[in-house]
Request: fold
Amino acid sequence: MGERGPGARGGGKEGARVYKVLSGPKPWKKPGMNRAGRVIAFVETLVISSGKGAGKGFKLRPWQKGIIKKVYRTGKGGLRLVREALLTIGRKNGKTQLVAALCLCHLLGPESEDYGECYSAASDRNQASRIFRELERFITADEDMDGRTNIKRFEKTIEVLSGDGDGSTYQALSSDATKAHSLNPSFIACDEVAQWRGREMFDNLRTGMGAREQPLMITLSTKSQDQHSVMSEVVDYGRKVLSGAFEDETFCGIIYETPIPEDPIEYAAQMTDEKAWQLANPALGDFLSLANMRKEAAQAIRMPSREASFRALYLNQEVDAAGEVIPMVEWHACRGLVDLKKLRGARCYGGLDLGSTKDLTSFALYFPGCGALLTWSWVPMENIDRRSEQDRVPYRRWVDEGHLLSTEGKAVNRRSIALQIAAIDGLYDIQRIGYDRWRIEDLLSIMADEGIELPLVPIGQGYADMGPAFDSFEIVIMHRELCHDGGPVLSWAISNLAISTDPTGARKPDKSRARERIDPAVAAIMAVGLAAREKPEDDTSRPFSGKTGGLVSGRVVPLVLKRGGDRVSAA
Reply:
């Protein structure tokens, strides 16, 4: 068994690993097989490591065999015709696992060549590592492959030490395009290209194949919502080749999609049409759960933000995955009259979005026992009229009416905000306050100077933290487990929400895509997400009058500040 790590060598002592051992000649080396047949035979000797088929042999479905037959068709002399292939399909249809198997086939299987160079490329290191992890699992389950390879996990590389593909290497590449300049690829898998920023790495990899006799580049991804992206360009070219508008036998376009109809009634009907789902998801009802798809569709029908994501990721449609994030009809259905006096001393969780000098600074408290949501937002008073004109919102009127708080100066006064949050902390039982690490140092320094201690915890603004937080926020709205007073500042921010979606379907607020300010909404999402993460015990108290969907109180909690440790009073 090959050792693992820098400077490792193959052929070490056999450990306790249980291998799949093939007896007799390799199935793909039987005489009379065509090229696609050899690839299929090789793939079906591999062992699946995860999912429903974990521990079993890789049994290709007819549609997967069809993909291989299209990509590995041959011309005169048995040479493979295709040099570039496109595979775009709904998520969770096993495209990464299939392409990893093909990569392995080019590294040390029937498609290998001595001293070949195989690569998987993606927008970030984690995504690029997905194919590496599949390759490692395939290799370490097979005695022959495991004994003649050297796997370096830290570097995400694999070296073939002997046999077919002797001297060949595999490497996972992330978004650094400069690394692709001097490469001489024999096989490239460009993963989730819809998420790539720019096209430099794609072009460098593609043009680097010129020195090989039969190179292959596979682009795999759900479709991009950006019509100017390299993924959209490849899909458009693929469609033209498939339609016969372009004649190019070196390009193979494989597009699984649910077409977008022109009729809006038909478009809406796709959300419940399981036959339409099947067009983008050939694995549906097989290793892609139909029950889960039905659940996702049912939720998407209620929440348009999920509908857009459902269409983009599951139906493989070119729609904006941001969509209408929180439907205002759902948001307004959560309005109620909050009894502030009954909230005194109640357990809650906070979210703090400091914002930049141009943004609002916002603080939110979520009370999971009753679902109450309180928010405070601050704006600098200097140039407030110009800000109102630029953002096209009535900041000054909101300040005058008590919906928005103000600080002196051109930028938000963080000292004033720290004192006010400390005063709020005296009114409620705040368990944790989640904050964005960006620009937090100034506030922490001020708090230290003022002797303020708050239960602050960092919340990353990436998909890992904000993805679950956004999901939790959406769920409490759908289930009417959130009650807000309908104030215009938070409602305005909710209407502005924009999100971005990663290849796994995780969603997070995206200020760069929002048309206007979303800071109060981000603070609220962090507060709700933190409460969900902490999993507090149930609290049956209901400190708001009537049911959600009642009258709007119309005001945030006005604050009266006094120095020297005096409390804030809430009207």
